[in-house]
Write a structure and sequence with these properties.
By secondary structure, the protein is an alpha+beta fold. Helices cover 41% and strands 26% of the residues. The N and C termini lie far apart (33 Å).
């Protein structure tokens, strides 16, 4: 399988969740669930 785009896809999902207020960005690439 082609896994080259998996990380950008995960980051995109995290940004969507963050925009919805579900996930908060803690810095240094770490995310936490509120």
């Amino acid at each position: 399988p082609d896994n080259k785009h998996i990380r950008p896809k995960i980051r995109q999902q995290l940004q969507i969740l963050r925009d919805k207020g579900i996930v908060e960005f803690k810095g240094q690439g770490r995310y936490g669930v509120k």
